[in-house]
Every structure is written in structure tokens, then in C-alpha cells.
Amino acid sequence: MSGRGRAVTTNSVLLSGLLALGLLAGCSGSDLRSPGAMEQYSAEEIFQRGEFDLERGREDDAAFYFGEIERLYPYSEWAKRGLIMQAFAYHRDQDYGNARASAQRFLDFYPTDEDAAYAQYLLALSYYDQIDEIGRDQGLTFQALQALRVVIERYPDSDYARSAILKFDLAFDHLAAKEMEVGRYYLKRDHFSAAINRFRVVVEDFQTTSHTPEALHRLVESYLSLGLTEEAQTAGAILGHNYRSTEWYEDSYALLTGQGLEPRSIGNNWLSAIYRQMIRGEWL
After folding, report:
1. CATH assignment of the domain containing 99
2. What residues does the Outer membrane lipoprotein BamD-like domain cover (predicted)?
3. Under 8 Å CB-to-CB from 138, ≥6 apart: which residues?
4. Angle at 208 between CA 203 and CA 209, to 5 degrees
5. Which of 64, 80, 195, 279 has a Cα-to-Cα distance from 37 of 20 to 30 A?
6. Distance CA 18, CA 10 (A)
7. Is there a domain that residue 163 lies in?
8. Separation CA 20–CA 45 (nearest Å)
9. Residue after which a domain boundary falls, among 90, 111, 132
10. Listed residues 70, 88, 111: the one ending a domain
């Protein structure tokens, strides 16, 4: 075939594709969603319609078209591309349940595909983006942490691992903030034992978060209120060793010295064990 003949053929194919996309774009959503309406179009044409709607902010319609590819052309390369785009479209539409379902289906069908890392990241985001105010139930935060951990551990070299680490740290901090809020609630009502339990969780389980210094100070307050001076002094010692420059240490130091005490590890309690492990490196 001559070069001119190939050019004419190529242009004809391109024109046919553009005309098909034009017909798809010109049809109303209700017409295309009617039974059998999509079966006359190729997988590529349906994919292009999904992209068309996505670019125009019609995420729900886009998700529908991407899903139609999987239905009409299962196990094709276009079905695979459509599935990950469907998860993206649902997530952008804040339809997090369907976003998770599409992302999980992609992972089930194509676990070794190069887009698997992105599918797992989208799945994690579908939890993370629903994390609510500190005062609400934090079940979604736990689920976000679990899903983000999978991204970090299973796809450490992917483009999404760094973002997953940052979001993991923020979600982790969010859980610590929840414990602190509840602890403060109990402390203000003089329920010191209940408050101590919450602050202890922060010190033991969320040591790397920004809330640890305040948790140690609140433990000083709570233990002094109960007359448990050894625990209060030890909490102050840990605070002084790790967070001496903070306002929380200054306040704890003032509380302790105001009662003739000093920040130092004393006695044999859970805080003493943490002091030995954290500061002296004694694990037994």
C-alpha cells in the first residue's frame, strides 16, 4: 500500500473514532444507560466516553461507562484500564463505598499489575478521606491505617508509598488526639483513674505522635491529684528527658517542685519500666 493510501486509512480510522465519540457524547445519559444501548460501541469508544464525562465533572456517569467496559469486554486490556478508572471516578465523586469495591476488584483480578499499587492507595484513601472530627467514632481511622500500611509494606518503591507514610502518620496522630480528648474530659471531671488510662495509652502506644508530651504532663497532674507521687515524679522525669524544652515540662516541673518533689524515676511502676527501656536501654 502506498504512503498516501496508509495515510488515508489512518485518517479514516481516526475520523471514525472521533465520530463514534461524538455520537456517544451527544447521547443523553438515560439513552446510553438503557438495556443494550452500549453494545454497539467498542471498548475504546466507551472508555473515551468515560474520560469525556470525567473531564466535565460528571464522575457518576464516567464510573458507569468505565464499568460497562468490564461488563461487555471482560478480561480485556480496556476492561482492566476501565476498572481502575472506575475506582478513581467513584473516589472523586466521594462515593467511597463503590470506590473501595472497584479498587478491591482490581486487586483481586490483577494483583501483579503495575497499577495495583495505585488501586491499593485508592482503597486506603477511601477510608482516609472519611476520617471525621476527633470527637467521632474512629473505626475508619483504624481501617485507613491498615490499608495505608499495606501500601507502605507491599509497594515500598511505588510513587504512592511516600504519600501513604505521611497519611499514616497523620491518621496515627488522629487516634492519639482522640485518646487525649477523652482523657481531658475525665480529668476535668476529677475522674483521675479513667483519665490515667487514656493518657497511658498515648504514652505506650502513640509515643511517636505530637501528643506524648501533653500526655505525660496530664499524668503528672492526675497522679498528684491521687497522691501517687512516685508515678507523678517518674512521668515528670520522662518528660524532662525527652521534652525538656516544652511548656508541658515547665508546667510539670512547677507542679512537682511546688509540692517539694522533683522529676526523677522512682518506685516500681509502669512508668518506671518505660523510663528504664526508653532512657537507660534496659529491656528486662
Report:
1. 1.25.40.10
2. 41-235
3. 131, 174, 175, 178
4. 85
5. 80
6. 12
7. no
8. 7
9. 111
10. 111
Name the stretches of the chain with pLDDT < 50.
Answer: 1-21, 23, 28-30, 282-284
Could you tell me if 280 and 183 lie in one domain?
A: yes
Give yes or no for a contact between 60 and 87, defined as CB atoms under 8 angstroms apart. Answer: no
Tell which residue, 270, 279, 201, has the closest CA to residue 237: 279
In a domain, 159, yes or no: no
What residues make up the domain containing 238? 175-284
pTM assigned to the model: 0.75
179 within 8 A of 201, measured Cβ to Cβ = yes
Q: Which residue has the cell 497523620?
A: 170
pLDDT of residue 188: 97
240: number of Cβ within 10 Å: 19
Number of independent structural domains in the chain: 2
Question: DSSP letter string over 6-57?
Answer: HHHHHHHHHHHHHHHHHHHHHS-HHHHTSTTTTTTS-HHHHHHHHHHHHHTT
pLDDT in tens, 261-275: 999 999 889 999 888
Residues 98 and 185 in one domain: no
Structure confidence by residue, pLDDT tens digits, 118-177? 999 999 999 999 887 555 667 889 999 999 999 999 999 999 999 999 999 999 999 999
What DSSP string describes 78-125? HHHHHHHHHHHHHHHTT-HHHHHHHHHHHHHH-TTSTTHHHHHHHHHH
Same domain, 274 and 180: yes
Mark whether 105 and 196 lie in a shared domain: no
Residues 6+ away with beta carbon under 8 Å from 142: 175
Query: With contact defined as beta carbons under 8 Å apart, do 60 and 94 qualify?
Result: no
In angstroms, rounded to a whole number, what is the distance separating the alpha carbons of residues 115 and 41? 26
Q: Which amino acid is at 249?
A: Y
Which residue blocks in 110-138 are alpha helix, DSSP H? 116-128
Residue 199 lies in a domain: yes
Please tell me the distance from the alpha carbon of residue 25 to that of residue 224, in angstroms, as a whole number.
71
